[in-house]
Design a protein that fits this description.
The chain is mostly helical. Helix content is 76%, strand content 0%. It is globular and about 55 Å long. The mean pLDDT is 91.
Length: 413
């Protein structure tokens, strides 16, 4: 393979598919994390319980992500990557605009109306990342895939930071929802300039089964690969779903007057954005996806341990540790790229879309385990027990999964 010049590399890394995917993921993350940021003020304003109703609504959103991951994954392999990029953003943008008008909804059973809208938003949000990473992975030369997908995630994840700042500056949580929805609608017009993946076009008319979700469960080797991909990503949403979104629950036990979940999420995503940019270059330098993820997991474990047991006795320290955990779990794009590279073109979008959403969809299970252990243990110990399970699975999977650095993606299952 001929070595690309520096200008050619930059042209690929900042090509239209990468830029549009990065912008799409930016809006996706903005809308995905917005409920976590406005959970307390929005539910109090609507006369609902921030803890019980908040957990119910969050679980509905995550369930929507799980269902939407399967739908958009299959759809993208059958109808093309671009069809998902257009359809998914339309669904979640309209759902978020509707969330902005919740104060004007009938007050009866308002928690179910809020949950239904977050469920629909979750279905829409499920398609964005997988289709974007698949499109970029199939459009870039194999030696630039890691860097290209890291640019997508590194920029896109800043959507969480902007979401927090928007909530603070917009003057109302409902305005923040409307802004997110409008941004999504605006992005639809930019996507007209994006072309379909060449690898997908080559496979499109082949006589091969496309988007068969059940195929992940009917072949032992494929099933194990699929489970390992999911396990590798679990610590990312353990850190966000428990240590950031539920940050206020840790405050009393740590001796902190108050911790804002919105700020915890924002600072975590500041770290994640930097970590995701770095992860591609780390993988490129090591010539290994799995070792880059393994080292970043180790860095995260140290941060979690010190955060929970190292006398984190101020709000500022807690936020600093959120940045640390964000840096460590900033292998999100690398983990999704790893999933894309594990499977053939005919089920690649299904894998790349369902795997991260299986991880997100398992947040309710992690929260359930966290709440279960709280019956007999402290908040800190309960979080630590869940963390040991989650990180144990991730370490094992990252160490034993197949290496995919420089793997040719033009193949089918």
């Amino acid at each position: 393979m001929q070595e690309l010049s520096r200008s050619s590399k930059l042209k690929y890394i900042f090509s239209i598919p990468v830029i549009i995917s990065a912008l799409g993921y930016f809006v996706d993350i903005y809308d995905l994390l917005l409920f976590g940021i406005v959970r307390i003020p929005s539910l109090k304003d609507l006369g609902l319980n921030p803890d019980t109703d908040g957990t119910f609504i969050l679980n509905c959103q995550m369930t929507g992500l799980l269902i939407g991951g399967v739908f958009w994954g299959v759809f993208g392999d059958k109808k093309g990557r671009l069809s998902v990029l257009f359809g998914s953003i339309l669904v979640y943008s309209l759902a978020n605009i509707a969330c902005g008008f919740l104060p004007y909804f009938p007050k009866t059973h308002l928690e179910y109306q809020y949950a239904a809208l977050r469920f629909i938003a979750g279905i829409g949000l499920a398609g964005e990342l997988g289709a974007g990473i698949t499109l970029v992975s199939e459009s870039l030369p194999k030696n630039l895939r890691a860097i290209g997908t890291s640019v997508v995630a590194g920029f896109g994840l800043m959507g969480a930071v902007v979401a927090q700042l928007t909530v603070e500056l917009a003057g109302g949580w409902n305005i923040s929802y409307i802004i997110g929805g409008v941004l999504g609608i605006a992005l639809l017009f930019l996507r007209i300039s994006v072309s379909e993946s060449g690898i997908y076009k080559t496979m499109e008319h082949k006589d091969v089964s496309k988007g068969n979700f059940l195929s992940f469960f009917t072949h032992k080797d494929r099933f194990i690969r699929y489970l390992k991909c999911i396990a590798v990503g679990l610590p990312t949403w353990y850190c966000i779903g428990i240590l950031a979104v539920l940050a206020n629950q840790f405050a009393p036990e740590l001796g902190i007057r108050d911790i804002s979940p919105g700020k915890a999420i924002m600072w975590a995503y500041v770290g994640i954005s930097v970590g995701d940019l770095l992860s591609g270059f780390i993988s490129h330098a090591l010539k290994s996806r799995k070792m880059a993820i393994f080292y970043m997991l180790a860095f995260t474990v140290v941060g979690v341990g010190i955060m929970l047991f190292g006398h984190t006795d101020s709000e500022t320290k807690y936020y600093l540790f959120c940045v640390w955990l964000g840096l460590g779990t900033g292998y999100w794009a690398m983990f999704v790229t790893l999933a894309a590279e594990q499977f053939g073109t005919n089920i690649r979008n299904t894998a790349t879309t369902t795997v991260p959403n299986m991880v997100r969809g398992l947040v309710p299970a992690m929260i359930f385990a966290f709440d279960f252990f709280k019956k007999d243990f402290s908040v800190v110990i309960s979080a630590a027990i869940v963390g040991v399970i989650v990180f144990g699975l991730a370490f094992y999977s990252s160490f034993t999964i197949s290496e995919t650095h420089n793997k040719d993606l033009d193949f089918t299952e």
